[in-house]
Design goal:
This protein is 44% helix and 30% strand. Strands 3, 4, 5, 7 and 8 form a 5-stranded antiparallel beta sheet that branches. By secondary structure, it is α+β, with helices and mostly antiparallel strands. It has a domain of 107 residues: Immunoglobulin-like (Sandwich), CATH 2.60.40.
């Protein structure tokens, strides 16, 4: 029978700890030596990593500045394009108005040359076109009262649309009610340009529109004239 002295566990771990630490240090040194032998230097790698991080931060800052400048340029281009578009539309409108004025000048010169009875009422330049919405149509006409001493014409006009619905021919009269008659009133001495939109059922086929000009107080139209789609 042998007797062994009892050693406390903390003393035993205390004796083993230096060897464990030495083994870890040796392993770390071996790892670092192996990396250096393979061409990897920790200090240089950390410097390179720090340099790359600084470069990324600078690039991000520069990218943010460029994005802000790009947004400013885009806003400037949009404003310029909007201004150019508004200018183009205004020029087009002025050009169209100039063409209409030239046409009116030639028309009235010819009308003056041909003459006519005082107070004779005529419908000129009568056109009918489809509008933007389904079933919507736009009518234009120029009312002219001839004569140098013509009196002021007071009255109204009426539009009678002939359409085909469900295989049957029907008519739609505008204005449809007395309350909507104000925009169909007329009061002029020599000429009056009229533009009017009418709304028909989208599935109806428009055949023609008759323009009827009424003098104030009269029940029968003074002028009738038909027009078809342009």
């Amino acid at each position: 029978m042998s007797v062994r002295p009892h050693i406390a566990w903390y003393l035993r771990w205390g004796l083993m700890l230096p060897f464990v630490l030495a083994a870890l240090a040796l392993a770390w040194w071996a790892y670092g030596s192996g990396l250096e032998l393979a061409g990897f230097h920790r200090g240089q790698a950390e410097q390179e990593l720090s340099r790359l991080r600084d470069q990324v931060a600078k690039l991000e800052e520069k990218n943010s500045q460029l994005s802000d400048k790009l947004a400013q340029y885009e806003r400037g281009i949009q404003i310029e394009q909007s201004s150019n578009q508004a200018t183009s539309e205004q020029l087009k409108s002025l050009a169209d108005e100039n063409v209409h004025l030239q046409e009116d000048l030639v028309f009235f010169q010819n009308l003056t040359a041909t003459g006519g009875k005082d107070g004779e009422l005529g419908v000129h330049r009568l056109t009918l076109e489809r509008d933007k919405m389904p079933g919507e149509y736009h009518l234009r006409m120029l009312l002219v009262q001839s004569g140098q001493r013509a009196k002021t014409f007071n009255g109204s006009y009426q539009l009678v649309a002939t359409v085909v619905e469900n295989g049957q021919s029907t008519t739609h009269v505008f204005p449809q009610a007395e309350s909507g008659n104000a925009q169909f009133k007329l009061s002029f001495r020599y000429y009056r340009r009229v533009e009017q939109s009418i709304q028909l059922p989208p599935d109806a086929k428009l055949e023609s529109v008759q323009v009827r000009i009424f003098e104030q107080g009269a029940t029968e139209p003074k002028v009738r004239q038909n027009v078809s789609l342009s």
